[in-house]
Design brief:
elongated, single chain, three-stranded mixed sheet, mainly alpha, three-stranded antiparallel sheet
């Protein structure tokens, strides 16, 4: 077994390999996300965060390699480098988790203000309308705050509640003066009966407004990200603890009494009987 206990050594190597695999996957996801948002207008805002992710993930990948090398070859400097580097990375991740939790309420309020700025919905621009239509279709909701009433008399087709949805979601019947809109009101098409029509008395629309649902999803996403970071930090901390344990075992010395060999025969002293010694 050498100076390192075999169980601790194998566990440490397994943790290092696991950290390396996770770092590689995260690096691939970051690279894919960078390519996806490369042509978008938001790239300037998220680019510093992407750079930080590149550095952090590449550093943990390299440190995991040093950890495996140090444990297998019993190289003290490699294990020390792993423990110090992962401790700093874990500390950074802890700070980010705290900042993320503190910004949860701020992100929810920012989402609320951005969507309330679209009111009234009848005057929203084309880009906002497309986002609202997709949100209503995915979340099975209508409007932002007061439900279908936020749309006035022209209710978009994405608010219509089908017979299947009526059993799982709350649906209500709008007023008689409303009509459904098949195409976007701000599109280049002329407003004729081809894309607008009167609501049938049996037609239902989703009752729940979309803004509370969206805000709850934003909060849930933030908590999910923080939970993932906490789990990743815990794995890094386990690696640091195992690295420190291995370092302590490397420093431990076993005291063995020295054995001296000589070529000269030992000197014996002849003992006499009691009677002979008295004469």
């Amino acid at each position: 077994m050498g100076r390192i206990h075999i169980c601790v050594k194998r566990t440490f190597i397994f943790v290092c390999v696991l950290i390396g695999i996770i770092s590689t996957l995260l690096l691939a996801i970051t690279l894919f996300g960078h390519g996806y948002f490369h042509q978008s207008e938001e790239i300037e805002e998220i680019l510093p965060g992407i750079v930080v992710l590149y550095v952090l993930e590449a550093a943990t990948l390299v440190l995991s390699i040093f950890g495996v090398y140090g444990a297998r070859k019993e190289k003290k400097w490699a294990v020390v480098l792993f423990s110090v580097g992962m401790s700093l990375a874990s500390l950074y991740l802890f700070v980010e988790c705290v900042n993320g939790y503190q910004s949860k309420h701020e992100m929810e309020e920012l989402t609320r203000e951005e969507h309330l700025a679209m009111m009234p919905l009848s005057g929203a621009n084309q880009t906002d309308l497309e986002g609202l239509y997709n949100m209503q279709t995915n979340f099975k909701c209508c409007g932002l705050v007061q439900g279908y009433q936020d749309w006035g008399t022209d209710i978009p087709i994405s608010c219509l509640c089908s017979d299947e949805d009526s059993t799982d979601f709350k649906c209500v019947a709008p007023g008689n003066n409303t009509r459904f809109v098949i195409h976007y009101p701000n599109s280049d098409m002329s407003e004729d009966d081809d894309h607008k029509g009167l609501m049938d008395e049996h037609m239902l629309v989703y009752k729940e407004p979309c803004l509370p649902i969206l805000i709850s999803f934003v909060g849930y996403d933030i908590i999910l990200i923080i939970g993932t970071l906490v789990a990743l930090k815990a794995l890094w901390d386990v690696g640091v603890v195992l690295a420190i344990t291995i370092l302590c075992q490397m420093r431990r010395k076993v005291d063995v009494p020295p054995v001296i060999f000589t070529s000269q025969p030992p000197q014996y002293r002849e003992l006499c009987d009691t009677a002979e010694c008295l004469t």
